[in-house]
Amino acid sequence: MLDQTIASLLSTVLGGFLTIVGGFIAIYFTQHMTNKAEKKRLALVKIEEAYILTYEVTAGLRSYVARIGREIISSENLQVDWQFNEDFLNTNYLIVQKLGMVIQLYFPEIQGDFKEFSISMRECLNSSSQIGVTRDRDEFKNIIAKVEEAHSNMNLAIAKLIEKV
């Protein structure tokens, strides 16, 4: 009788202990999987943000170069809207800085690619601020080529991030 009571008590204690341990393990595992899924979702959101910012600054610069190019081609006396020019440049510098922040915080492994992109974009933006003065059509081609190359390199780096996620 005493053996049966001890066996019953022991099985109850052991069952309770295993239930508690199993509960902790299940909670830990569930939390771990939730965190992992959340990190992946956040990474994808930030990758999308980086791609959109890259596109915005590149498309804006393409549009701006095309606008100035049309003005140079269509008029003898070039009248550049310098206020638009300054606003455009400031907006795009801010976009490049925001992109840099996203890259630095979330994807430090592609900082080298971003640095090349940033240098190319700043060079293009600085050159574009001089377009109205130079009136050189070949400069347009060079600027557009730099923009396209920088944009392509940055997109390749972003694509590498997507593969990792």
TrEMBL record:
This is DUF4760 domain-containing protein. It comes from the Bacteria. The keyword Transmembrane applies. The chain crosses the membrane at residues 6-30. Keywords: Membrane, Transmembrane, Transmembrane helix. The lineage of its organism: Bacteria, Bacillati, Chloroflexota, Ktedonobacteria, Ktedonobacterales.
